[in-house]
Design brief:
Elements (H helix, E strand, L loop, with lengths): L19 H22 L4 H4 L3 H6 L6 H22 L14 H11 L2 H14 L4 E8 L2 E8 L10 E7 L6 H4 L3 H8 L5 H11 L1
Antiparallel strand pairs: 1-2, 1-3
Amino acid sequence: MFTLPDLPYDYAALEPYIDERTMRIHHDKHHAAYVKNLNDALVGNGKLLSMPVEELIKNLAVVPEAARTKVRNNGGGHANHSLFWQVMISPKNGGGGQPGGALKKAIDATFGGFVPFQEKFTAAGMGRFGSGWVWLISDGGKLVITDTPNQDSPLMDGKMPILGFDVWEHAYYLKYQNMRADYIKAWWNVINWAEVGRRFDGAK
């Protein structure tokens, strides 16, 4: 059975950039619903229910066809949000700023510096039509910015996400309404670059 992970911080930890009420609804309602729906879709299939969700969505072909779309949507939602909570942290505990170490060197080499990277990532977030995600992925050690619709994940294409950004309206509408640009600008203040760097090192 899949379970809803706890947030690694208090609901209000990302204030004022992401508000407590949004975090409660986003985690306790939206993410919880993905977990419930995923478990419901795989009732009686103990082998698939025991797989790590990342492995499950990497291998959707093993899911019975009748359940595959539901598993894709809800398994993707579970995996994506599980990563999303981890790559954010309170500004009081180091959120925001810029990455260091090998990740910084890779960003500089690939994008020409942090500011051009930030601009390209922001543009992807603004350009993602409707609901979806923006990703920084490590593809054989090479950094790539990409985006996916709905709850699709780069894992479904064999790519390793190291940073994921939720641009579904439920992630920001209570505070920012239709101002996605303001939400994206605020989000840079809560990125947990230490965790993203750890994921980058692991992906290599």
